Amino acid sequence: MMEAAEHLITYRFSLFISPGSAASEQAVYNLKKICEFLGEGDCEVEVINVKDNPQRAEIDRIMAIPTLIKGKPFPALRIIGDLSNHQRVLEAMGYVPRDAIRVLPIT
Fold first, then answer.
1. Does 94 map to a domain?
2. Closest Cα to residue 66, out of 52, 53, 48, 54?
């Protein structure tokens, strides 16, 4: 299970979904859980309905639904699927808890 810790950065996510799709609904739920873990104040989330906004999906070159784009911090990352494996999503994003970073003394 994941353990919450202090975080260094703010995350910016764009989640492309198709309403009524079970995978899209699951992705919205899982992204909410991931953001709760990261700290809701540390996440900016935009959910884009591709049926209502097909131009945005085309501009961002979305080929599969659901797709999560992590725009910040860089580098950008795309994850396709329902985000159900929280640990794998966090690892793919390069998540590093503050307590995992060691500062070496200057000698």
1. no
2. 48
Of the two residues 82 and 101, the one the predictor is more confident about is: 82
Q: Specify the residue for token string 């906004």.
A: 53
**How open is the CA angle 54-38-25, to the nearest 5 degrees?**
35
Cis peptide, bond prior to residue 66, ω within 30 of zero: yes
> How far apart are the two ends of the chain, measured CA to CA in Å?
38
CATH number, domain containing residue 33: 3.40.30.10
What confidence category does residue 33 fall into, taking pLDDT thresholds of 50, 70 and 90?
very high
- Looking at the DSSP assignment, which residues form a beta bridge with residue 16? 48, 67
Half-sphere exposure of residue 52: CA atoms within 13 angstroms, side-chain side:
7
How confident is the model at residue 39, as a pLDDT? 83
Structural domain contains residue 32: yes
Say whether pLDDT at 26 is over 70: yes
